[in-house]
Amino acid sequence: MNESKENIIKASLSLFLHNSYASVSMKDILSKAGLSRGAFYHYFESKEACFKECVKYYLAQVTHPEPIEYTSISLKDFLKDNIKRMSHTQNEISALERLLFFNEAFRIITDFAKYLEQRNTEELAVWTKVVENAVKTGEIKKDISAGEVASLFITQCDGVILTHSMTIDKKKGYAKVEKQWDNLYSLIKK
C-alpha cells in the first residue's frame, strides 16, 4: 500500500474508532493526516470510501495481515503471535467503541456482511493450514480434523471476547483468551 494512503487510513481510522462516522468531518481527517484536500481525493473519492478502507484495514490488523507468513510456524507460536497482535490492536479502543464502529460498518457499507464472511473464511483457512502443519510435524494429535481444531480456536476466542467485551481489563489484555487457548492447546498437544 502507498505510504500516503496508509497514513490517511491510519489517521482516519483513529478518528472513526473514537467518534461516530457522522461526527468525523473531512476537516478532521485532513488535519489528523496532515494532508491537503487534493491529496485526500487523490486516494479516496469520498469520506465513505475512506471509511470502507479503514474498516478493511482494521480487520486485517485484527485477523491475519499476511496469511502466507503463518503457514510454517508452530501452532504454539501462532497462538502467541495472535494474542500479541490482538492485544495491541484491540486495547487501543474500548469495547463500546469497537461495537459502535462495527455497527456503523454494517450500516454504511452495503456489502459488509459479505465482506466479513469472506474475511472469516480466509481466517479459517489460515488457521487450518497452521493446524495441518502442527499435525504434520507431530506438535499436536491428529484425532480431530484440522478444520475443526481451527474452528474451535477461532470460536473460543470470539466467544471469550463477546462474553467479556465490556469487562476485559486493558491492563490484562487478552489474558482470558490466552488462558482458554492454552487449555485447548494442552488438550490436543502430543
Search tags:
9 helices, single chain, Arc Repressor Mutant, subunit A, 71% helix, mainly alpha, 190 residues
Describe this structure in words.
By secondary structure, this protein is mainly alpha-helical. It folds into two domains: 1-50, Homeodomain-like (Arc Repressor Mutant, subunit A); 63-188. It has nine helices and no strands. It has helices spanning 3-18, 26-33, 37-43, 47-62, 75-90, 95-108, 112-136, 146-164, 175-188.
Structurally, the number of domains stands at 2
Assess the beta-strand content as a share of residues: under 5%
Mean pLDDT: 86
Question: What separation lies between the terminal Cα atoms?
Answer: 41 Å
Number of helices: 9
Briefly summarize what is shown:
The chain has 190 residues and is mainly alpha-helical. Helices cover 71% and strands 0% of the residues.
Could you give the topology of this structure?
Blueprint: H1 3-18, H2 26-33, H3 37-43, H4 47-62, H5 75-90, H6 95-108, H7 112-136, H8 146-164, H9 175-188
